[in-house]
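Recall that a protein's primary structure is simply its ordered list of amino acids. Everything else, from secondary elements to tertiary packing, is in principle encoded there. The following example makes that idea concrete.
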Amino acid sequence: MPRRSIWKGSFVDAFLLRMKKERESLLSRKIWSRRSSISPEFVDCSVRIYNGKTPVRCKITEGKVGHKFGEFASTRKRRPSRTNIEPGRKGKK
């Protein structure tokens, strides 16, 4: 089920539309537009997607076409589970 109406088409920022023709410049290009859709022209390119702090390197494959760039650059830090940190305090009150 598409998220956007079919008559509108997928959203891609204007600068990315210009960069489609020049694939070589995409290899070292940082992408700030996390909301843009990945089109088939980007397949086999390696781009750096900004996650709010640093750019994250991402290789575009055929399976990623149709998704958004932001889906592949996590903005949250992963923290370890806090279970079993202090096993000695279990019986104390």
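The helical segments are 14-19, 23-26. The chain has a mean pLDDT of 79.
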